[in-house]
């Protein structure tokens, strides 16, 4: 009788091992363990002050960990600067829109594709002659639905369009792990619904980690959810189980997650 074939091991795209972060005597992140598999859409939720932004800053290299380790595709990120982490395949957006307001929509995207295509600082190359960069920028504009706004200054876009542009900039480098920090913050319900569809489209085949307060967005996008409270992950599970978790509901001070999911 043949032995059953072993179950395939799905590698972690992003892994946090006993991560702690203190500022002076104040410990903000208190021993977070988390493994996010390749191709997963993972949401990190929690009440205000839980440490979600600090956690994102640790992953993206803006802060260094006090103790513990963060691994991207198995490689330790310790000591790497944000741009070095980005070049290893991790990109993030920010809670506050971060674009070049005086450049056109197209120019914003083209700036983001130059390094991944192998272009470095040069005095003698006209950007208009870089056919591959221009083509790639136009492809991304088509993907994020801003092709018709190509030549508009980014600062003149609507708020929702600016957020879409930032997502375009985030994915322009071809990173396999995408971090989105409150991508629908400040949006109306219809704008938020459009953003969800955009995020779903641009993260196909990629690993998504997002911080988001809108529970309808979280439950419609996430394969799994981690709940961070006072710097600790109190639960990680599929949305259905998180919705019914008593400890999670208590952390939200009685707010019904089920209501937020509709």
Can you walk through the features of this model?
This protein has 262 residues and is α/β, with parallel strands linked by helices. It has a single domain (41-61, 83-260), classed as P-loop containing nucleotide triphosphate hydrolases (Rossmann fold). It is 33% helix and 24% strand. It is built from 10 helices and 10 strands. The strands form 2 sheets. Strands 6-7-8-3-9-10 form a 6-stranded mixed beta sheet, sandwiched between helices. Strands 2-1-4-5 form a 4-stranded antiparallel beta sheet, covered by helices on one side. α4 (131-143) packs across α5 (159-172). The chain is globular and about 55 Å long. The mean pLDDT is 89.
Strand and helix map with partners:
Blueprint: E1 12-23, E2 26-37, E3 41-45, H1 52-59, E4 67-72, E5 75-76, H2 82-87, E6 90-92, H3 105-114, H4 131-143, H5 159-172, E7 177-181, H6 189-202, E8 207-211, H7 215-221, E9 224-229, E10 232-237, H8 239-243, H9 246-251, H10 257-260
Parallel strand pairs: 3-8, 3-9, 6-7, 7-8
Antiparallel strand pairs: 1-2, 1-4, 4-5, 9-10
What are the segments in which pLDDT stays under 50 over at least 5 consecutive residues? none
How many β strands by DSSP? Answer: 10
The number of helical runs is: 10
CATH topology: Rossmann fold
Task: Provide keyphrases for this structure.
single chain, 262 residues, alpha/beta, Rossmann fold, six-stranded mixed β-sheet, four-stranded antiparallel β-sheet, 10 helices, 33% helix, 24% strand, globular
Short description:
This protein has 262 residues and is an alpha/beta fold. It has helices spanning 52-59, 82-87, 105-114, 131-143, 159-172, 189-202, 215-221, 239-243, 246-251, 257-260, and strands at 12-23, 26-37, 41-45, 67-72, 75-76, 90-92, 177-181, 207-211, 224-229, 232-237.
């Amino acid at each position: 009788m043949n032995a059953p074939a072993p179950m395939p091991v799905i590698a972690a795209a992003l892994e946090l091992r006993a991560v702690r972060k203190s500022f002076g005597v104040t410990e903000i992140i208190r021993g977070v363990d988390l493994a996010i598999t390749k191709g997963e859409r993972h949401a990190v939720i929690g009440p205000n002050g839980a440490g979600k932004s600090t956690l994102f800053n640790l992953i993206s290299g803006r802060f260094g960990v006090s103790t513990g380790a963060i691994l991207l595709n198995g490689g330790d990120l310790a000591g790497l600067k944000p741009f070095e982490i980005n070049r290893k395949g991790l990109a993030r957006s920010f809670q506050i829109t971060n674009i070049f307001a005086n450049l056109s929509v197209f120019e914003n995207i083209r700036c983001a594709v130059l390094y991944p295509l192998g272009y470095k600082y040069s005095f003698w190359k006209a950007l208009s002659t870089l056919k591959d960069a221009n083509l790639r920028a136009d492809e991304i504009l088509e993907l994020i639905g801003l092709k018709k706004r190509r030549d508009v200054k980014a600062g003149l876009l609507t708020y929702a369009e600016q957020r879409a542009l930032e997502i375009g900039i985030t994915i322009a480098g071809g990173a396999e792990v995408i971090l989105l920090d409150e991508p629908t913050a400040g949006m109306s319900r219809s704008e938020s619904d459009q953003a969800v569809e955009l995020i779903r489209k641009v993260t196909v085949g990629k690993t998504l980690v997002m911080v988001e307060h809108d529970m309808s967005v979280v439950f419609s996008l996430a394969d799994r959810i981690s709940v961070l409270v006072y710097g600790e992950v109190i639960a990680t599970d599929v949305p259905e189980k998180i919705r019914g978790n008593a400890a999670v509901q208590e952390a939200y001070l009685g707010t019904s997650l089920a209501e937020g999911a509709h």
